[in-house]
Design brief:
Two copies of one chain form a homodimer.
Chain A (H helix, E strand, L loop, with lengths): L8 E4 L10 H11 L3 E4 L6 H15 L6 E4 L2 H7 L3 E4 L6 H8 L4 E6 L2 H7 L6 E4 L17 H8 L7 E4 L7 H6 L4 E4 L1 H4 L4 H17 L1
Parallel strand pairs in A: 1-2, 1-8, 2-3, 3-4, 4-5, 5-6, 6-7, 7-8
Helix pairs in contact in A: 1-2, 1-9, 2-3
Chain lengths: 214, 214
């Protein structure tokens, strides 16, 4: 069994979207605002830099009790002592990830289609990143239609793991995503590019709470 | 202690340099010609494809007793059951690699300068990839002068681990590289782009033998 985790406001990092600001500073602010989980996603860094960044984030997040997941790179997660890994459909297969990281690691999987989610129900995954919920400019390689709020609502009774909605999420739609059955929302630009990452995280946390109550 | 290995003719793969031919086929031919070690280097593949390629190579090489190393990616090595990892100066630190892979993995390090080799003498590395020996077009990111044959000769008495010369290596200079104190030669295009990878490997193996005798 993986350790427990809280998907409410799940920050996926993107250094280019930080607009020149320091990533650690952005994440630190976001956590003070209420981010409950962080995924370090680095597509340009070399491995040495990626590990150093992951270590610095882990050192900052551990005292806050906020888990750090690494996008794609199981080796970086091992080197930095991260809490888990988030993989996409083209990344390492979750069976391999689980075998390497062991039962206590948190393992998330991106699922773009109903077929992918249903297949993952038979795999050792802890949560699904379901997206895109809405059209988004952060990732441009989606080959599938957005799920929409109704898509999430129809998906919920068919799956056994928590899901987090990602893609086009902002403070204006977060409540509806959670109300539709998602455990939380995953955001990139809504926090990384926000004038105040702390205020943005706080507003998202409130919206998620509203969504749960409705 | 890492397992024993033979650096004589060390093939570093490069799919673009295979000129449209199948990588597994090239490597298979090269091994029949005398390649003693293979490093899978993939800079473009996603992780899933990288792992699949590594597994296919491992299945092919294991019966031949030829070790498979993975360039940079410790996670891919773990997933595919490769024999070790080769890292560069910007990849994961060898202390981290060794900790993750354990004492039996073969661990190679690229060293571009005397300072880097001497620093590595205190680290848990099994061999050095010393390069470039000559100017080369395969890697264009070298910020340092080629070692030259004399550079290798002066380096040899200062180090305790075997080294393999890389960069601009071909059948015409392999004997001199080994004669200067290298355990073997690492080649990319000299095999990947050769009309007959098997003949190219065989000629390199002969040159290495000549270099040892001289």
């Amino acid at each position: 069994m993986s350790r427990s985790f809280d998907l409410s406001v799940y920050l996926v990092t993107d250094r280019p979207l930080c607009q020149g600001r320091d990533l650690l500073d952005i994440v630190g602010q976001a956590v003070r605002g209420g981010v409950s989980m962080v995924q370090l996603r680095e597509k340009m860094a070399d491995t040495r830099e990626f590990v150093e960044l992951a270590r610095a984030l882990k050192a900052m997040l551990a005292p806050q009790g906020v888990p750090l997941l690494i996008n794609d790179r199981v080796d970086v997660a091992l080197a930095a002592g991260a809490d888990g890994v988030h993989v996409g459909q083209g990344d390492m297969h979750v069976l391999d990830v689980r075998r390497i990281l062991g039962p206590r690691a948190i393992l998330g999987l991106s699922t773009d289609t109903l077929e992918q989610v249903l297949e993952a129900e038979g795999l050792p995954v802890d949560y699904y990143g379901v997206g895109p919920v809405f059209p988004t400019s952060t990732k441009t390689d989606f080959s599938h239609q957005p799920w929409g709020i109704e898509g999430l609502r129809r998906l919920r009774p068919r799956i056994s793991r928590p899901m987090v909605g990602i893609g086009g999420v902002d403070v204006g739609n977060a409540a509806r995503i959670v109300s539709a059955g998602a455990e939380g929302v995953a955001v990139v630009s809504a926090i990384c590019s926000a004038p105040s990452p702390k205020d943005a995280a706080r507003a998202l946390a409130k919206a998620v709470a509203v969504g749960r109550g409705s």
